[in-house]
From TrEMBL:
Higher taxonomy: Bacteria, Pseudomonadati, Bacteroidota, Sphingobacteriia, Sphingobacteriales
UniProt keyword NAD, yes or no: no
Catalytic reaction equation(s): Hydrolysis of terminal non-reducing alpha-L-rhamnose residues in alpha-L-rhamnosides
Organism: Pedobacter heparinus (strain ATCC 13125 / DSM 2366 / CIP 104194 / JCM 7457 / NBRC 12017 / NCIMB 9290 / NRRL B-14731 / HIM 762-3)
Protein name stated in the entry: alpha-L-rhamnosidase
Top class in the EC scheme: hydrolase
Residue intervals of the Alpha-L-rhamnosidase C-terminal domain: 806-879
Highest rank taxon of the organism: Bacteria
Keyword Hydrolase among record annotations: yes
Matches recorded under Gene3D superfamilies: 1.50.10.10, Galactose-binding domain-like (2.60.120.260), Immunoglobulins (2.60.40.10), Maltose phosphorylase, domain 3 (2.60.420.10)
């Protein structure tokens, strides 16, 4: 197991400063984004906290941490594990634990006192973390399962019945604590004495199981506190372990049949311990009510086959089979530090329509991913089917052609015992509409709930403006991003794909980070990418590599460094750079050795500007968008940018000797790029919008030529495109920022505000409630026109926050903040908030005639520079709460103030 990973511990802490009328709150101290984390496998965790205060200019000057082996000891300030002493430091993030060696299965309690520029706090309320199983030998049980198929399993169709396992045991003493550690491949539900443990679903998070396997840790103390007989039950589903498709072994990676490793460690109040573990004394069966489960195809459930009391003591298991020992999956065991999936929101149908054939169509009014939970009452043996789709045919029937061969159907057979409530366990679908067939009686809206399922992460950002279209695009983006978080970022939730494509998130992950606290998810995904890297350096297009696509392009694997860079920029955690630098270095050499020409051009690309829009929506009618147009220009521009990034990060990672080589490489590539692709008429390549955007954004254009290239970009948009974009996945990632940084935020705003093709507004005008995969998703051939994709968001969400709201990190983690909103004709106000690692940053501005009002919140232990639209300081009126604002200078039509933490109100009158 990897014991070198560093963790951010979090818990809510309340502190009061010893100064009259002052209050400081320490909050959000978390373990790799989990509060009071259970089961971390990190030898030296890092401790962090947020400071909140009603006063301005609160800066930490020192801290004092206590760690104890029990809550009682911590309460008495008996730090028997670690006492940091008073440490003079302004750092409230990532402070490395330096106490005694941490041991498997032990719980540690901690608290902190902070010293600030406004006084000393009291001790915080306690937090804790629980160590997981640090060593392979800590796992006392053995893998069990049935490595064979049963009657009813459809091997070719990848539709297996669920496997059920159970074990009875006794607790003869008073239980002090009990913890379950388990790996249920591919998905599990755990029960004790008939009660489901935890609210996680679709657990554990998916990985390449031959590389690494995530285990979950669950507190089961309350279930075992009462002595006597108990029973454990586990249901195993396919997940991605038994792959959703089995027919293309050359393409699709599969890992075997469902299997289980579990142990429950019990501590009694007298100090003794006991362990319940998986072995061949367990009983199992595949003859249960879940007849089939498959992520693409859905779940089939026959309630007549339910085992009443199967996970309770005393169940008659004589017809069950003895569990069999099976081969372990092969990957290293790791604690799951990213959030598990949960039902995060429920929706009610907005309408139920009866069709001429007697079926019903449920409309939930929103495209999302998850499942339907429903109530039904009817005769025994009645089968109800639910077929899912994103949209309807013109005749009102489900449109399902874009699902390809995904059946996307759940079937429930009634047992006939009053009102029955059911939802699937081991599948999810992407949908807005559901066709209900065989439902007894007349369905009512109150009988159905749409369950939105995604990773249990907080929404980090809010955004609202005077432009209702921008607001709706933001909502669509939120739903699309949430729908595609499934323990990894997948491309779509509905068809027979749902793969973690790297290229979709190269820049998209950056924008998503303003909407969701997705740090733990993307750290895990970077691990997935590194695990998928081949020994020679090749990085796949999909990671985990469930599909064996190693096409050796630049743009998709570049995601490894882009996302690491994003995490460092947004959270200030430099370990993500250090951890991933060697893999990027190896891949950079791999690509250079194989595909760089003697002239310095990167010749290999696979996708080009993927899914660039046809000239008109009508031109793309019925056309399959799965068309590749490789571009050496794109590949070379990316490679140049990556070389510069690596040069910049060489010292940070302890590889200062690499800097000269990468700097020289970048210079050589730049010269080669301009010789090859620059046209003396002032444009690059074929004068496509993306061909010009990348050189400008990446800094490839010679300064003397930059103005002409920017003019070409603007000319293409304004004259050729009539104010619209013409970029695919690649160009859209740099479109809005390039225009804004070139002094044309008005043109970026014009693009964002369009309602005609191609635009985000066009999607909405044509019924989109998420983000389409294609700009012409309503006319393209149905093989590839997902209606819930996020890749075409590009850098739009970054632009919303950094340029419209004016919230941008000036130093990693927002330790220093640049507040500089773009004031654009037609946009009268923006209000946005972002929960940074230091706390909430808010920007709310309103423009009325010649008056500009701006309210700002800067979290404690940070500072900011605010750029106000004024030519001189005398035009700026500071509100009563603006104490701590210091005038710096006036430049380029802006008056600049330095702001320490706190609340500020400014008014500019011209």
């Amino acid at each position: 197991m990897n014991l070198k990973r560093h963790i951010l511990l979090t818990a809510i802490l309340m502190l009061n400063l010893s100064i009259a009328f002052s209050q400081v709150t320490l909050q959000n101290l978390r373990c790799e984004m989990l509060q009071n984390p259970l089961g971390i496998d990190v030898a030296r965790p890092r401790l962090s906290w947020q400071i909140a205060s009603t006063r301005n200019d609160v800066q930490q000057t020192a801290y004092h941490i206590l760690v104890a082996s029990s809550l009682a000891k911590l309460t008495e300030n008996d730090a028997d594990i670690w006492n940091s002493g008073k440490v003079n430091s302004a750092e409230s993030l990532y402070n490395l634990y330096a106490g005694q060696t941490l041991k498997s299965k032990n719980k540690y309690y901690w608290k902190v006192k902070v010293y600030t520029s406004k006084g000393e706090s009291s001790w915080s309320q306690p937090a804790f973390w629980l160590m997981g199983l640090l060593h392979y030998k800590d796992w006392e049980g053995r893998w069990i399962g049935f490595d064979r198929f049963f009657t009813g399993d459809n091997e070719a169709g990848a539709r297996l019945s669920a496997r059920y396992f159970r074990k009875e045991f006794s607790t003869t003493k008073t239980v002090a604590s009990a913890t379950a550690y388990l790996m249920g491949m591919g998905l599990y539900e755990l029960y004790i004495d008939g009660q489901k443990i935890g609210d996680q679903v679709l657990a554990p998070t998916a990985t390449d199981y031959t590389k690494n396997i995530k285990y979950n840790t669950l507190d089961v103390t309350e279930q075992l506190r009462q002595g006597g007989n108990h029973a454990i039950g586990v249901i195993l589903g396919n997940g991605r372990f038994f792959a959703m498709r089995q027919s293309k072994a050359y393409k699709v990676k599969t890992f075997g049949l469902p299997k289980l490793l579990l142990q429950v460690n019990i501590k009694y109040t007298d100090g003794s311990t006991a362990t319940i573990k998986t072995d061949d004394t367990w009983k199992g069966t595949a003859d249960g009510p879940i007849l089939a489960n498959n992520e693409y195809d859905g779940e089939i459930y026959d309630a007549r086959k339910e085992f009443k009391g199967w996970s309770e003591p005393g169940f008659k298991e004589d017809k069950w089979l003895r569990a069999e020992y099976v081969q372990e999956p092969g990957g290293t065991y790791e604690a799951q530090l990213n959030e598990g999936m949960k039902v995060m929101k429920t929706l009610s149908p907005v309408s139920i329509t009866r069709r001429p054939n007697g079926n019903y169509i449920l409309d939930f009014g929103q495209n999302f991913s998850g499942w339907v939970k429903f109530n039904v009452k009817g005769p025994r043996g009645t089968s109800v089917s639910l077929r899912f789709a994103e949209s309807l045919e013109p005749n009102g029937e489900l449109f399902r052609t874009n699902l390809r061969d995904a059946r996307a159907t759940d079937i429930y057979t009634l047992k006939g015992e009053g009102t029955e409530t059911w939802a699937p366990r081991f599948t999810y679908q992407g949908f807005r509409y559901v066709e209900l067939n065989g439902y007894p009686g007349v369905p009512q809206k109150s009988d159905f709930s749409g369950c939105l399922v995604y990773d249990d992460m907080k929404t980090a950002g809010t955004f609202e403006s005077s432009n209702s279209l921008l607001n709706q695009i933001f909502k669509n983006a939120w739903w699309g991003i949430a729908s595609n978080y499934k323990g990894m970022p997948v491309d779509c939730p509905q068809r027979n794909e749902r793969q973690p494509w790297l290229g979709d998130r190269t820049v998209g992950a950056y924008g998503e980070s303003f909407l969701f606290d997705n740090t733990a998810l993307y750290k895990k995904w970077l691990d997935d990418i590194r695990y998928a890297q081949k020994e020679d350096g090749a990085i796949p297009d999909v990671a985990p590599a469930f599909w064996r696509y190693y096409s050796d392009n630049v743009t998709w694997p570049a995601t490894l460094l882009f996302v690491a860079d994003m995490l460092y920029r947004q959270t200030g955690d430099s370990t993500v750079i250090r951890k991933n630098y060697p893999a990027v270095k190896k891949w950079m050499s791999y690509m250079k050795d194989r595909y760089m020409s003697s002239e310095g051009i990167m010749t290999k690309d696979s996708y080009g500007d993927w899914c660039a829009p046809p000239a008109t929506a009508e031109d793309g009618k019925g056309v399959n968008a799965d068309q590749k147009h490789p571009s050496a220009l794109i590949a070379t521009a990316y490679y140049y940018h990556l070389a510069n990034m690596m040069a910049g990060y060489s010292a940070l990672t302890g590889n200062a000797g690499d800097r000269e080589g990468y700097t020289r490489l970048a210079a050589e590539v730049k010269n080669a790029f301009n010789r090859k692709f620059y046209n003396s008429q002032g444009y690059y390549g074929d004068n496509k919008l993306t061909d010009n955007l990348l050189p400008v954004y990446f800094g490839l254009v010679e300064e003397a030529d930059k103005g002409r290239v920017v003019m070409q970009i603007c000319s293409i948009i304004e004259e050729k495109n009539n104010g619209h974009l013409s970029t695919g996945l690649i160009g859209t990632q740099f479109l809005m920022r390039t225009l804004t940084e070139a002094g044309r935020p008005d043109l970026a705003y014009r693009i964002a505000s369009q309602k005609t093709y191609p635009s985000w507004g066009y999607m909405i005008e044509n019924g989109a409630t998420a983000i389409w995969e294609l700009w012409n998703g309503n006319t393209a051939a149905p093989k590839m026109n997902s209606q819930n994709h996020v890749m075409m968001l590009g850098d739009l969400m970054i632009w919303y926050y950094e340029n419209l709201a004016g919230i941008k990190a000036a130093a990693p983690g927002f330790k220093e903040i640049t507040m500089k909103p773009e004031l654009i004709e037609g946009l009268n106000n923006v209000t946005a908030g972002y929960q940074s690692v230091y706390g909430l940053i808010k920007s709310s501005w309103t423009k009325t005639g010649k008056k500009f009002s701006w309210n700002i919140s800067i979290p404690p232990n940070t500072r900011a520079k605010a750029y106000l639209p004024a030519s001189m300081q005398s035009q700026v009126k500071k509100g009563a709460t603006a104490d701590g604002a210091k005038y710096i200078m006036a430049e380029n039509g802006r008056v600049v103030f330095e702001l320490k933490s706190g609340e500020y109100a400014f008014v500019v009158e011209q």
